[in-house]
Amino acid sequence: MKFRIVTLISLLAFMGALLPNHAQGQKQQVIKFRTQVKPNSDERINLVMTPMPGGDGVKIEGAELVTLPGGEGQAWKVTNNWITITGPVTKFDCNLSAIDSITFENPESLQELIVETNKMGVLNLTGMKALTYLGASATDVREIDLTGCTSLKQIHCNGSKLIKINLTAATNVERVSLTLSSLRDIDLKGLNKLRELDLNNNALSRIDIKELPELQSVVLSSNPLEAVSFSFCPKLESISIKHNKKDSKLTSFAAVDLPKLREINLYGNKISTIKLEDLPELSEINLENNSLTAVDFSKCSQSLTEVGLGSNKFTGEFELKGLESLNKFTIENNKLTSFKVTGCPRLSTLGVQKNELTSLDLTSCEGDLDNVYASENKLSSIKLLGTHKNLYLNDNQLSSIDLSGCTSLESIELGNNKLTSLDLKGLNALYEVNVYKNSIQGENMKKLIASLAAKESFSTGSLYAVQTRDPEEHNLCTSDDVKAAKEKNWSILDRRDYSNYEGAFLRTIKCRTEGNGGSIKLNNQDAASIQVYTDTRVDVTITPDAGYGLKTLGFTPTGEGATTEDLFKTGTFWVSKDGEVAASFTNDICKVKLKREGHGILMLDGDRLNQDLERLPRGTKIQVIAKIDPKETDGERELQSLRANGKNIKGNKEFILNEDTEVVAKFDWLLDSKDPYEGETWESNFTKEIVRDDVNVVLFPNPARAEVFVEGASKEATIDLYTLDGVRVLSSVADLSGRASLNVDGLTEGIYVVLVGNVSKRLIVRH
Questions:
Q1: In 3D, which of 570, 571, 639, 634 has the Cα closest to residue 601?
Q2: How far apart are CA 180 and CA 194, in angstroms?
Q3: 3-class DSSP state of 542
Q4: What's the chain's Rg over C-alpha atoms?
Q5: Could you tell me the pTM of the whole model?
Q6: Using CA atoms, how far apart are residues 392 and 373, in angstroms rounded to an integer?
Q7: pLDDT tens digits along 658-675
Q8: Alpha-helix residue ranges (DSSP H) falling in 570-705
Q9: Residue 190: beta bridge partners?
Q10: N or C: lower Cβ tally within 10 Å for the chain?
Q11: How far apart are CA 321 and CA 304, in angstroms?
C-alpha cells in the first residue's frame, strides 16, 4: 500500500509538469518603479496600460486612479514612492511621471514600452521577447540592455544621456533613432533587417556602416566624425552627415558601389577630398560649406538632378558639362573667375552668385535655364539665352545689357550696377524689374518706362526704380515718370521699404547763420539756397571762426507748426520738403580728449562731434560709445572701466561738458576668466565646460507656456530647441553671463529637448 501511494504521488507530479503553465501558477509579470512625486500630494503621474488595472488580472499597488478637478479626465495619484503593477500588461506608457528607477520581472507579455520624459539612468529590458516598440526619449538613461529583445522593431531614444546600448541583441530591429545623446561608439553587426538609422547629434568619432542588407537611410549629422565608411549596403538610398563646419572633423568622404543610393547630404563639414563611384541612382548631392577645391562626377551617375557646391574653396575656372539629367546646380560663394556650362540639356536653375566672375557666357547651355543667380560678382558683360525666366544680376559692374532676345523673361534684378540706360522693349512676359542704385536719369529713365510692355489692370507690373536715402543711389525717377508708368499699369516702388514711390520733386533748401562766429555750406555750395530732389541727402559743412564752435544746427521744414530737426550730432539730413538750415556759434567752448586702453571702440555719439572734439559748447550733454570691437578682439575681453575726468560713467556712458574733459576707456580680459591661450589646451577647456554645463544649466519655468529662460550656460553658448524627432525649431545664443531665453508661444504642446552647448535638457511646453 505504501508503495502504491508513493507511486501515485510521483505520477501526479509528472502529470503536473505536463500541464499548461497557467494550470501550474505561471510566474506573473511585474513592473516596479519609483517616482519622485511625493505620496498623497496634489501632483499626478501619467500611466497608460493595456489592459488597465482591474481587468484581465492586472492590479496596481502604490497608486490610485482619481478624477481631475472639474471632472476633466482622470490621472493617477501616488500613494507610495514605489509602485507595482502585476499582470499581463502588453502596453505600458509612463511618460511624464518623474520615474528615477524601474525594473521588470518576467516581462514576457510586454509589447510596447514608453518611458519618455523620466529620470531613470538605466533601462534593463532583458527577456522582453515580445517587445516590438521602445520609446525612451527625453530621459536620463545612460545604458539600455536589450538582451533577448528579439521581436523589437522600433527604438526611439532621443534627447537622452545614452552612452551604452547593446543594439546587436535586437536582431530584428527595423528602425533606430538615438539622436541628441552621448554615444561614442555603436555596433551594428548582424542587424539584417535594419531599414532606418538616425544617430544625429551624438559623440561618434568613427563608424562603419557595412553588411546591412535592408538599410535604406542613415543620419549621422552633428557628430565629431573623423572617418566613416559604407560597404555592402545594397538598398541604401539616403546618407546625411550635416554639420556646422566649425566643429567638424570630417575631411574626406567616399561612397562606392551603392547601387540604390539617391541622396547624399554632407553640408557643413571640412571635406577636401571626395570619391564618388558606381552610384547609378544618385540624384541629389549637397556638398555645400566644405573645403573642396575639385570634384569629379564622371564615375558617379548620369542620374544627378541636383548638385550643391556652394561655400567651398573653388578658384579660377570651373566647367560644368556632361550631366544629362541635371536640373539644379549651385556653386555660390566661392572664388571662381570663370564659369562655363556646356551640354546639360535639362538644367533649369544655375547659382553662381558671390564669386569673382567678370564675364558670363550662357549661350552654350543646351537647356532652357529658367533661373540664373549671378548676383554679387564683378560682371561687366554677360551673354544670355532667350529661354531665361528669372535673372538675378544685382551687385555687379554691368554698364549695359542686351535683353532683346529674352522674350520669356518674367523678372530681372539689376540693382547696384553701372547702368545709365535700359531697354526692355518686346519683353511682354516681364512683370518685375529691379534697377535701384544705378545711374538712370532724365531721358533715359523716360525711355526705360516707355519700353515697358503695357499691362492689363488686373495684372500690374512692378519697377523698383530707386532705393531712397542711399548715398549710392544715382537713379532719378520723377513724379512725371511715375505717372507715365501708372498709365501702363506699372507700379513704381522704393526698394528701401518696398513701398509705392510717388516720384522725386524738386525742393528748395535755404541756409543762414544766427549772429557771428562762423559760416555754413550745403552740399559744399557757397550759396544762400540750393535746389535738390526729395530723398536726397544734404551735407552741412561747418566752418567756425577762430575761438568759436558750433552751438546749434537744425533744419526746419516750411509750413506753420513745423518741427525743427536737430542736426548738431550728424550734420546731415534727407530732404522731404522745402525748408531752411540755421546755425549758431559760441565762443564758450571746451575740449574733449579720448583715451583708449586695450582693444575696443571709443568715440562720441555723433559723427560730426568726433570731427570737432576741440570746440564743443560748454553745457552740452555728451553720450559716449565704448564697446569691444569684434574685429580686434577674440570675444574674451570687455569694457572694464569708463571715466570722464576720473568720474565713473560706465553705467549711463554720458556726462555734461562743463570743462575740458578726458574720457578714458579700459578694455581687458573678462574678470571671471583667464587668457585661453595660457596654461590649458582648448580640448581640456572644452571638456571642463561640458561638465560645468551639466551641473549648472537650468531651464525655467518648466513646463513653459510662452517663454523659457536658460541660466548657467557658458558665455555665448549655442542654444537649440529640438523636437523629439530631432528637428531644430528654435535657436539662440547665451549672453556673456550665460543667460538666454526662447519664445515657445508658437510651438505645439509637447516634449522638446533643449541642447545647451553639448548638454541636453528636457522641456515641456503647455499652453
A1: 639
A2: 20
A3: strand
A4: 36
A5: 0.78
A6: 5
A7: 999 999 999 887 654 433
A8: 607-610, 682-696
A9: none
A10: N
A11: 12
